[in-house]
Amino acid sequence: MAERLVFIVAVSATDSRLDKYLSLQSPISSRSRAEYLIDSGLVTVNGKPAKASYKLKIDDKVEVDFPTPKSTEIKPFDIPLDIQFEDDDIIVVNKPAGLVVHPAAGHENDTLVNALMAHTKNLSMKFGEDRPGIVHRIDKETSGLLVVAKNDSSHQHLSDQFKARSINRLYEAVCIGEPKQSEAKITSIIARHPNDRKRFASVKDTRGKIITTPTDDITIGKIAITSYKVLKSKTTASLVQLKLFTGRTHQIRVHMSELGHPLLGDKLYSTAAASKKIAGEMKLETDAMNRFLLHAKVLGFIHPKTEKEMNFEVDWSTQEKAFIQKWFP
């Protein structure tokens, strides 16, 4: 049976957007979850379907129906998994570059989720989506660490940590050029690119300046915060460490591109001018890897059941590690 949640809007939530309001309610706890439920027609306000942008009024009755789990529709895909840790509640996996995290158009049966389904029958299905166990995601071409929930309780506990920004996520990347500042924090509001649906971009004001502080009149996008530190650099490219405080789609790629230093190998966010800086042997080796160089190296969180702090670290794969050691000795 589907689970129904009922919320009565208080005075303090008057004029809030429906999606933002739901993202603050447990067990939804994220904007993406709220948007999924609204888009799926599983949310009503006063008995009628409502858009994500609906502005709530005092005493509005918001009802949410969670769908029946659809795990049986996902086909197992038996490929080796690089599991760093597993118990009855979580799995920590090192995802290789080139593997999509969950089923989507063009990748229905060959994703990490399909591989997890072949590995275990115990995965969280809290929201009844085609994403069992998936608490957070990284791009197809990004390699590195992910934590997967094996039950609904663990999923909720981990989701709360992501929402509270208490998860420690450190990435390494190679970017084109050399940032002027050796370390800095980047803050913006990231939304779909206005002209290219495949890309994301920071929201700008009427003068074309990137907006760094959310206001009530900004109705699109989500706050995105990234810090970076240059580890090693040369004129053509730099090895950087990045810390995610939020987890927006393409966040690191967007921020580094808008900084003027797109990730090496990132065909979607790189510019012609930036790409020209990479030539000769470095270009040949970059093309051979057929990916952008971004790696989720460190992941730290509180175990959802034992409450113990857990920290994991994985290195780049062999080819990428050799490339980095060669160009950034």
Main sheet characteristics? 10 strands, mixed
Taken in chain order, the helices and strands follow as EHHEEEEEHEHEEEEEHHHEEH
List the uncertain runs: none
N→C terminal distance? 58 Å
CATH architecture group name of the largest domain? 2-Layer Sandwich
The number of distinct β-strands equals 14
Q: How many structural domains in the coordinates?
A: 3
Describe this structure in words.
The protein is α+β, with helices and mostly antiparallel strands and 329 residues long. The protein has 3 domains: 4-65, RNA-binding S4 domain (Structural Genomics Hypothetical 15.5 Kd Protein In mrcA-pckA Intergenic Region, Chain A); 71-163, Pseudouridine synthase (2-Layer Sandwich); 171-292, Pseudouridine synthase (2-Layer Sandwich). It has helices at 18-23, 31-39, 112-119, 152-163, 251-258, 272-275, 280-289, 318-327; strands at 4-8, 43-45, 48-49, 61-65, 82-86, 90-95, 143-149, 168-176, 183-192, 200-202, 222-233, 237-244, 294-302, 309-313. Strands 5, 6, 7, 8, 9, 10, 11, 12, 13 and 14 form a 10-stranded mixed β-sheet that branches. Strands 1-4-2-3 form a 4-stranded antiparallel β-sheet. The termini are far apart. The mean pLDDT is 91.
What would a concise description of this structure say?
The protein is of the alpha+beta class and 329 residues long. It has helices spanning 18-23, 31-39, 112-119, 152-163, 251-258, 272-275, 280-289, 318-327, and strands spanning 4-8, 43-45, 48-49, 61-65, 82-86, 90-95, 143-149, 168-176, 183-192, 200-202, 222-233, 237-244, 294-302, 309-313.
